[in-house]
C-alpha cells in the first residue's frame, strides 16, 4: 500500500517510516527536504497520487502560540484540500492527551485546530492522542531546571516510549479509520517528580529534584490530571525504568564510527 508520512524525517516520523517500509509498504516521506511542503503546498498533490493512507506527524518549528497556530491552520487547510482531491482513504494524526482541557495553552489550541480540521473534513480519519514520550524527560529538565536543581510538580504523569507510540501509529494506520479518537499512554501512572527523580538517578546526573507545590508543567499552571487519559486507553509495554536503563547503557551513535 502507498502511504504518505507527513513529517517523515521527524523524531516520530523517522521510526514510523522505517517500520512501514519493513512491512513492505511503499512509503513516501512528506517533508520539505523531500520536496513536500504542507505550508506552501509544493509537491503535495504529486505525493498523494495513488496514496491510500496519510499519516500526519508534522510539527511546527516551535511550540510558541502564534507560530504553532499559524502552522497547523495553514497546513490543515492545504492537507484537506489536497487529500479530498486525491480521495484519501484514511488520514491519521498524532495529537496529545488533554488537548481539550487546557485551551489557554497556545500549542494545545493549535493541536485542537489540527484535530477539528480533520474531523470536519469528510475524510475518514483516526486521531491518536498520546501522553508525553519517555524521550521528553530531558526537555522537562532543560526547561524547568538549572545546573543544580530541577523544579518538578506532583501532577499526574504517564509517559510512553517512542517505540510503543510508533507501534500504535503503524497498527492504527493499517486498520480501518476509527472516525474518532483513541488514546495511548505508558504502562505506569505516578507523580511527574517521581519520574524525573528516577531518571536522574538512573542516568547519574548530579542535579537535585525539588518538588514544586504548584501544579505546574513547563512553567504553566495546569489541571493536575491534564497529561493523563481520563478514560480508556491503549497502554505501551515499555516501563520507564527499563527504557532509562537501556538509554544509559547505549553507546552514542558517533562512537560506532571509530570501530
Ligand atoms: N514529543 C512528544 O512528547 C509528543 C507527544 C504527543 C504528541 N506529539 C505530536 O507528534 C507530532 C510529531 O512530533 P515530533 O516530535 O516527532 O516532530 P519533530 O521531530 O519536530 O518533526 C517535525 C516534522 O515536521 C516536518 N515539517 C515541518 N514543517 C513542515 C512543512 N512545512 N511541510 C512538511 N513537513 C514539515 C519536519 O520536516 P523537516 O525535517 O524537513 O524539518 C519534521 O519531519 C507533533 O504534532 C506533536 O504534537 C508529540
Please give a quick description of this structure.
InterPro entries: NAD(P)-bd_dom (IPR016040), NAD(P)-bd_dom_sf (IPR036291), NmrA-like_oxidored (IPR051164). The chain is an alpha/beta fold and 259 residues long. It has helices spanning 11-22, 44-48, 65-85, 106-119, 137-144, 162-174, 192-203, 240-249; strands at 2-6, 26-30, 53-56, 90-96, 125-130, 149-153, 156-157, 180-185, 190-191, 208-212, 216-217, 220-221, 234-235.
What's the CATH topology label?
Answer: Rossmann fold
Number of helices: 8
Would you report the number of β strands? 13
The rounded Rg comes to 19 Å
> Which stretches are low in confidence, meaning pLDDT under 50 for 5 or more residues running?
none
SSE sequence, one letter per element? EHEHEHEHEHEEHEEHEEEEH
The CATH C-level name is: Alpha Beta
Write down the overall geometry: globular
Roughly how many Å apart are the termini? Answer: 39 Å
Helical content band? 25-40%
CATH-wise, what's the superfamily? NAD(P)-binding Rossmann-like Domain
Structural category is: alpha/beta
Overall pLDDT: 95
> So, CATH architecture?
3-Layer(aba) Sandwich
Keywords: NADP
Organism: Sphingobacterium athyrii
Domain NAD(P)-binding: 7-172
Protein name: NmrA family transcriptional regulator
Amino acid at each position: 500500500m502507498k502511504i504518505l508520512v507527513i513529517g517523515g524525517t521527524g523524531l516520530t516520523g523517522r521510526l514510523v517510516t522505517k517500520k512501514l517500509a519493513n512491512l513492505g509498504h511503499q512509503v513516501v516521506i512528506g517533508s520539505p527536504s523531500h520536496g513536500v511542503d504542507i505550508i506552501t503546498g509544493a509537491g503535495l498533490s504529486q505525493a498523494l497520487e495513488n496514496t491510500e493512507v496519510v499519516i500526519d506527524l508534522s510539527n511546527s518549528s516551535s511550540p510558541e502560540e502564534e507560530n504553532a497556530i499559524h502552522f497547523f491552520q495553514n497546513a490543515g487547510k492545504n492537507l484537506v484540500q489536497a487529500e479530498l482531491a486525491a480521495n484519501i482513504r484514511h488520514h491519521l494524526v498524532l495529537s496529545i492527551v488533554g488537548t481539550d482541557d487546557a485551551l489557554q495553552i497556545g500549542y494545545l489550541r493549535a493541536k485542537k485546530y489540527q484535530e477539528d480540521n480533520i474531523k470536519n473534513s469528510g475524510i475518514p480519519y483516526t486521531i491518536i492522542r498520546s501522553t508525553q514520550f519517555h524521550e521528553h524527560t530531558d526537555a522537562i529538565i532543560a526547561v524547568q531546571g538549572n545546573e543544580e536543581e530541577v523544579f518538578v510538580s506532583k501532577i499526574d504523569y504517564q509517559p510512553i516510549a517512542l517505540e510503543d507510540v510508533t507501534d500504535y501509529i503503524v497498527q492504527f494506520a493499517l486498520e480501518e479509520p476509527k472516525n474518532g479518537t483513541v488514546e495511548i499512554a505508558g504502562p505506569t501512572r505516578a507523580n511527574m517528580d517521581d519520574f524525573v527523580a528516577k531518571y536522574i538517578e538512573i542516568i547519574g546526573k548530579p542535579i537535585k529534584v525539588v518538588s514544586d507545590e504548584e501544579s505546574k508543567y513547563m512553567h504553566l499552571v495546569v489541571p493536575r490530571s491534564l497529561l493523563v487519559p481520563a478514560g480508556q486507553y491503549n497502554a505501551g509495554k515499555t516501563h520507564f525504568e527499563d527504557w532509562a536503563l537501556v538509554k544509559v547503557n547505549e553507546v552514542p551513535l558517533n562512537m560506532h564510527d571509530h570501530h
